[in-house]
Amino acid sequence: MLGLSPDMSIEGLVLDVDRFASHDGPGIRTTVFLKGCPLACVWCHSPESRGAHPELLYQDERCDACGLCPETCPEHALSMGMNGERHVAVLDRDACTVCGKCVEVCYPGALRIGGIATSVGEMVQQVEADAPFFISSGGGVTLSGGEPARQPDFSFNFLLACQMRGIHTAMETTGYARTEVMQRLASVADLLLFDMKLVDSAAHMKYAGVPNELIITNLRMLASEGHDIQVRVPCIPGINDSADQIRSTSRLVADSGVKRIALLPYNSAAGAKYDWIGTPYTLGGRTTQEEEYMDVLAGICKTAGLEVQIGG
Ligand code: SF4
Ligand code: SF4
Question: 133: exposed, middle or buried (C-beta count within 10 Å: 0-12, 13-18, 19+)?
Fold first, then answer.
């Protein structure tokens, strides 16, 4: 953006960086996941991104029972014990202060800190290493979450710095943030991947933890400003994937002026990460939709005048 220079010193809380991603926008991409999300979707497939603070993530299937971590924990939050027939480390989350000492000795990577303070400068340096792949594939950087708008200054400056280096920028968003914040971030995003879950606000509140009026207002506002937007609908069996619901959603999207929609089939492995943060997954027992059914839903979106993609 003319006349602006990014502040490379601003820090964000970064959960993860996924290189060579192919589902978060065009071409080969490096996706940066931030910590913190204002929603609480019951189907969330990255629950470790929701909290806006660092967390100790523990994957006990990776533990090889070396016994080193209990010795390093100053809070005695780790001990050795049994999970079924497996001898593994056992974590007492109430006692853990997320100091990170155990992570340093855990060579299999069973213990990790989710949420590392990282400056815009450090993040840009990391993603710039992938620039040759962006150029050859028409890819770029995608900022995802969590919700990037929860860390608006980091997100703005990071996307601006990438744009100024000629890197294509995409931002995946829940759309749930003050409209001025969304407009500022959209000004440095070449593409917005905008989630739309449910048209009915009471149902949105029930399943995603917040009402949706602000999200719909933001979608309409950003579309009216001419931003390149793809709306993404996570299709969750029995919650928002009926033909009537997708008809309502596709009409709302088309009426807002957006031309493109992606229908994301339910990810039946979505519950896998809940153990990492010691939280139960309450949405079990659902299976991914059949291809034929997704084709029916895609047809409904086409009827509404939208260009449709199945999957991310
Ligand atoms: S992060 Fe620190 S307090 Fe928490 S279990 Fe590891 S060593 Fe103990
Ligand atoms: S350091 Fe890692 S591998 Fe070793 S016991 Fe602890 S969690 Fe398991």
Answer: middle
Pairing of strands 191-195, 78-83: unpaired
Q: Which two tokens stand for residue 6?
A: 């990014």
Residues 47 and 148 in one domain: yes
pLDDT in tens, 108-136: 999 999 999 999 999 999 999 999 999 99
Predicted TM-score of the model (pTM)? 0.94
Task: Indicate if 92 and 144 belong to the same structural domain.
Answer: no
- Residues 183 and 234 grouped into a single domain: yes
Residue nearest to atom 3 of ligand 2 (CA): 63
**Residue 134 near residue 29 (C-beta atoms within 8 A):** yes
Per-residue confidence (pLDDT) for residue 205, from 0 to 100: 98
Location of structure tokens 């920028």: 169
**Maximum Cα interatomic distance, the chain, rounded to a whole number of Å:** 62
Whole-number Å distance, alpha carbon 139 to ligand 1 midpoint, is 38
- Domain holding 61, by residue range, is 55-114
Q: Does residue 172 share a domain with residue 185?
A: yes
Q: Take atom 7 of ligand 1 and give the residue whose Cα is closest.
A: 73
Strands (E), the chain: 11-21, 29-34, 55-58, 78-83, 86-91, 111-114, 116-119, 140-144, 168-173, 191-195, 229-234, 260-264, 307-310
Among 114, 134, 154, the domain-final residue is 114
Looking from the CA of residue 109, the nearest atom of ligand 2 is 2
